[in-house]
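pinned: reference chain
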Amino acid sequence: MSQKPKIVIASIARNVGRTFHQDYKRILAAFSDFEIVNWIIIESNSTDNSKEILRKYSRVSTVIIYKTLKTKNYNQIFRTQKLAQARNSYLSEFNKINVNRDIKYFVVCDLNNLNNKINKLAVNSCWKNNNWAAVTANQDGPYYDVWALRHKFWNNYDCWERYEGLKEIYSKATLALWDSVYSRMIRIPINRNWIQVDSAFGGIAIYDTKYLKGCRYIGLTASGKQVCEHLSFNEGIIKNGGSIFINPRFINFKLTDHSRRKKYFRYYNFKYQIAKILKIN
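pinned: its structure tokens
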């Protein structure tokens, strides 16, 4: 990169008061080779001091744009609806900012200390390959974000929908959970080639802005079931002619609550586990 490309960062925030300072320092340092035009933070329904903390940072920082989203009927709607509403709110803010600003990249990153290993080296590795519309993160441990993942061979379905179906077949629900979710949480070595996918997120992703036209987050299926909101957004990128990749060197953390639970299954004897998976009621 011969000159600093312009980027906008976007995050959604809930109950981030305790960890935001660390996130703030780490993300800005990781993207210090870029001109950060703004960091859009959409807060929603926090029960801690997040509003106060984010308001303070928006006053002293030259880049932060902080908005509070008041979700109607918060306790009556699905979690994925809430996430989609918040994410579409930062898209609306980005579209306002991007008018005549020539912003090259749009970065979406999770807060709550979920990018605690991100650094400049990991970020800059995304430009070892220039043929992408979106590049998404890898973890230094089991790849956790299976719900957002779609890949022809690795995971080509809604893992939680599959889990509900397999519970009716397997002798134990834990075996259905292993088959549908945890067995897909593979470890991707850092030296592997980039993996092209139909959808992924993984806690942080970088998007080439020319592929974002018309992309929206949707948290429900047409029949009213919860669906990962990243799927519709990534579908829009592909419809716009873009390609989506997981970059194995784009490491953002080691373990989440999701991937830590995989350890539970390691206590099973391997042969016993396989025998149970093959056994049906």
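why pinned: The longest strand covers residues 35-43. Residues 6-154+188-254 form a domain with the Spore Coat Polysaccharide Biosynthesis Protein SpsA; Chain A fold (CATH 3.90.550.10).
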